[in-house]
Specification:
Layout: E1 15-20, H1 29-38, E2 51-55, E3 71-72, E4 75-76, H2 84-87, H3 95-100, E5 137-141, H4 150-154, E6 160-162, E7 169-171, H5 181-185, E8 191-194, E9 199-202, H6 207-210, H7 217-220, E10 227-231, H8 238-245, E11 250-251, E12 262-265, E13 271-273, E14 279-284, H9 288-295, H10 299-314, H11 320-326
Length: 350
């Protein structure tokens, strides 16, 4: 990766994303958009900088929430790097046998070599609970481009930095020595290691697009209009309103202390079913305690605000919050980064 302009850890402005988990359908379009754009080189086959996992679930890498890192009361916490098998993915398949060997009616696609034990979406759609009140929802994850990035502090080579103009966390791969201390320090475990090139890599927030006024690929490609992107300090924009004004968009695991800049509107989910098949409107199917374990104590007032504003519209009233979440006009979701990438003459740099 060619180093972009900027250095240091303090940012004058900060770009951020908001994912509405009530609208995410787990289609993986954001994941694939990122994959085909950024992780096609040798050594990055298993890398998915943007993943969409089912919750409750063990995630990618497997059981990442128990691997440590981040801060506690400002003090860096020890963490460990995931093992290669805990990541999974990047397998070779028997394409030649199935597609070109004349055995298409008798064999099926399967990984070649050691039988895999985990992968990016290994426990997809399994969820939790018991019928008829089982439940699950989808959670997109990528580098949080944190306000206090533990990865930047942990890098002994000074290869990682936070850009002043937009707060994007990047690395100068020419300085990376492959120590992976950044991965150990990251509590979200969204830094990958390229075992071929011997450098660490992670989401770069599509900074070449952002510099041209184009939203990141994962944002632009979402078919459900479930993602917003913009500057946090733009008080007229949806990011500021969702995070600061209405306080319905929350960070994942705020207790990790890195102040992430990827936010989530928590899922409301359906009501529980009683034994007679009627709805118990007083008891949510997705346990609020579980959502609180993910997004912190602010999830309860956030859910109350969402439900209040939904009821306002059901009663015939108007709600700016609901209008924002419905997203009638896609360009309003990520101004000023609404430029069409097809209008730009892109130049590849090596």
């Amino acid at each position: 990766m060619t180093k972009a302009n900027g250095s240091g850890s303090a940012a004058a402005r900060q770009v951020a994303m908001v994912f509405d988990l009530n609208k995410c359908i787990g289609c993986q379009t954001c994941s694939v958009a990122c994959k085909v754009l950024w992780t096609r080189d040798e050594g990055s086959e298993y890398q998915w900088w943007c993943t969409v996992n089912t919750l409750p679930g063990r995630g990618h890498p497997k059981d990442w929430e128990a691997m440590g890192g981040g801060y506690r009361e400002g003090v860096p916490q020890p963490g460990r790097r995931p093992l290669r098998e805990e990541w999974g993915g990047g397998w070779d398949f028997n394409y030649d046998e199935v597609l070109y060997g004349g055995k298409g009616q008798s064999v099926y696609l399967h990984p070649i070599g050691e039988e895999p034990k985990w992968g990016p979406n290994w426990d997809e759609d399994q969820g939790a609970g018991e019928y008829p009140n089982s439940y699950f929802f989808y959670l997109p994850r990528l580098c949080n481009h944190c306000t206090k990035p533990a990865c930047v502090e942990a890098c002994p080579q000074g290869a990682m930095y936070k850009r002043k103009e937009d707060g994007i966390v990047l690395r100068d791969e020419s300085r990376c020595q492959g120590h992976q201390f950044c991965l150990e320090a990251c509590p979200y475990k969204k830094i990958y290691f390229n075992f071929v090139r011997q450098v660490s890599q992670q989401c770069i927030m599509c900074f070449p697009r952002v510099e041209q006024g184009v939203a990141p690929a994962c944002v632009r490609q979402c078919p459900g209009r479930a993602v917003w992107f913009g500057f946090m300090d733009d008080e007229a924009g949806p990011i500021h309103k969702l995070v600061r004004k209405w306080e319905v968009a929350l960070p994942l695991h705020p207790e990790y202390g890195t102040e992430p800049n990827i936010f989530y509107i928590p899922p409301i989910g359906p009501a529980r079913l009683n034994e007679d098949g009627s709805f118990d409107e007083s008891s949510p199917r997705i346990p609020t305690d579980y959502l609180e374990s993910l997004f912190g104590p602010r999830v309860r007032p956030a859910l109350e605000t969402l439900q209040t504003e939904m009821q306002t519209t059901r009663n015939g009233g108007k709600s700016e919050l609901m209008d924002t979440l419905i997203a009638y006009w896609w360009k309003d979701m990520f101004k000023p980064f609404d430029r069409d990438p097809a209008d730009i003459q892109w130049v590849e740099q090596r």
